[in-house]
Design goal:
2 domains, binds alpha-L-arabinofuranose, 505 residues, single chain, 23% helix, alpha/beta, Immunoglobulin-like, 10-stranded mixed sheet
Length: 505
């Protein structure tokens, strides 16, 4: 068993953990939208206007803050005008990125905005810069957000929506270095400025424009974009062309060509996965440092709008649909990511796990009318108290909580903490596959009342939930927390995630 001490100063407040760090992503990919969110009004599955109500209820329980749509790679071949008006008259297209399937455009702008309203989540729309025009993107903003009278307002009203919606988050292209147009950073930067110019703020709807950023550790891309961020000639009303810059990072156990199975892996694969997950800290640090050079006041947000695990698809499923199971290993990838996000809260303003339902590291898996909550779902639920909370720095002394993995060292203990409305929430992950970790929480600068703790673990790292066994991995009460004169002492089981909440007294 390893031993560790985590010193937390309850009276030293860090930056706010934006609730949008707990954001989500839904692409027209496989069964994420069709079958996942959308079943159509005639479905026997309970729905409101075609939107599955069981999925809505599950996500509302997470306080889902935002939903990114319609892609991903799909966004850069999506033409929004194909997805408005009477459904039976909407044109179809081929989704060439994902499975070459026909897209009937039944889930379009109005359906997405209705979904966000049902979820109580903010929309994050990803506009098409790869194959769409400046005019097309500009008109989409006008259609959604303008009030009064204008060509796009009249079109919206003709489609049954009088009032404008409010849309803040607007993505300008996706992975423009790849599926979004195979551009050079310089060209992408110029194009982002051009498109951003015509994405207008209509009335008091102020857009938060997110330019397409780097993959992984491509800091050069970030630098090129940041060099182009300032609007020269805007001295009267100084502003940046875009308010956020994205980055994508996926966790894999090996190379893209050998991602491996979601459920059939060994302990070595597990540790390699965790090394890959832990890399997110270095990557965010690298991009933030570059951004600090051009934006020392940290007004521009870093937006990790795609993250999560990526495994081989489940046997027998369409390789273009990216359907994968989700085990305790995925949950621990998520919990350690959140600790890192909390530490980067000053620059990192949003993060979106890929993807919410039936695709990649999903919260929810559906099969017909069956719905399964994944282990990753439970991490989001257990951690939801961190949303919009004030982060608290954690100083961790954990010298023996380490593992050699190939040439690298893996820190096996991860902790973060926050305070909100007089309640402290501490999250702890023990990545060690076999050994428990005895952790002393040395809380300074205040004291806490009764502790409520929960644990998410399972006998095996490979354990997961299915329709036949939906609760194989679920949070349980955890009462092994003792108050001592050194602080709160708890033994965190091997491969587990623990949250501990208490009121400040
Ligand atoms: O999330 C799946 C895909 O991964 C997205 O469409 C793309 O942006 C990324 O490569």
């Amino acid at each position: 068993m390893s031993t560790a001490t985590a010193v937390i100063n309850l009276d030293v407040e860090g930056p706010t953990i934006d609730r949008h760090l707990y954001g989500h992503f839904a692409e027209h990919l496989g069964r994420c939208v069709y079958g996942g969110f959308w079943v159509g009004e005639d479905s026997p599955i309970p729905n409101e206007g075609g939107i599955r109500l069981d999925v809505v209820a599950a996500l509302r329980a997470l306080n889902i803050p935002n939903l990114r749509w319609p892609g991903g790679c799909f966004a850069d071949e999506y033409h929004w005008k194909d997805g408005i008006g009477p459904r039976d008259r909407r044109p179809t297209m081929v989704n060439t990125h994902w499975g070459n399937v026909e897209e009937n455009n039944h889930f379009g702008t109005h359906e997405f905005m209705a979904l966000c309203e049902l979820l109580g989540a903010e929309p994050y729309i990803s506009g098409n810069m790869g194959s769409g025009t400046v005019q097309e993107m500009s008109e989409w903003v006008e259609y959604l957000t303008r009030e009064g009278d204008s060509p796009m307002v009249r079109l919206r009203k003709a489609n049954g929506r009088e009032e404008p919606w409010r849309v803040k988050f607007w993505g300008i292209g996706n992975e423009t270095w790849g599926c979004g147009g195979n551009m050079r950073a310089e060209y992408s930067a110029d194009l982002s400025r051009q498109y951003a110019t015509y994405c207008r703020d209509h009335g008091d709807n102020t857009l938060y424009r997110i330019a397409c950023g780097a993959a992984d550790a491509d800091y050069k891309w970030t630098e090129t974009l940041m060099q182009q961020i300032s609007c020269f000639g805007c001295e009267a009303a100084p502003r940046t062309f875009f308010q956020g810059l994205s980055v994508h990072y996926y966790t894999l156990a090996g190379p893209w060509s050998a991602k491996g199975s979601a459920t059939e892996f060994d302990t070595e694969d597990y540790y390699r996965t965790m090394l890959s997950a832990r890399k997110i800290d270095r990557i965010l640090t690298g991009h933030s440092s570059v951004m600090d050079c051009y934006d020392p006041g940290r007004t521009v947000g870093l937006v990790l709008d795609e993250w999560g695990t990526w495994w081989d698809v489940e046997p027998g499923t369409d390789p273009g649909f990216l359907f994968q199971q989700n085990t305790l290993r995925d949950a621990l990838v998520a919990s350690t990511h959140f600790d890192v996000f909390h530490r980067h809260a000053e620059r990192l303003r949003m993060a979106n796990i890929a993807q919410t339902v039936n695709v990649l590291q999903a919260m929810i898996l559906t099969d017909g009318d069956a719905l399964v909550l994944t282990p990753t779902y439970h991490v989001f639920e257990m951690n939801k108290g961190h949303q919009d909370a004030t982060s608290l720095a954690v100083h961790l002394r954990a010298r023996d909580a380490r593992r050699r993995v190939g040439d690298a060292e893996l820190d096996t203990l991860s902790v973060s903490a926050s305070v909100k409305e007089g309640r402290v929430l501490v999250s702890l992950t023990n990545l060690d596959a076999e050994g428990a970790a005895e952790v002393t929480l040395d809380l300074r600068g205040g004291s806490v009342g009764e502790v409520v703790a929960r644990v998410l673990t399972a006998d095996r790292l490979q354990d997961h939930n299915t329709a036949a066994s939906p609760d194989a991995v679920r949070p349980r009460a955890f009462d092994a927390v003792t108050a001592t004169d050194r602080g709160l002492v708890l033994t965190v089981p091997p491969h587990s995630f623990v949250t501990l909440g208490a009121a400040l007294s």
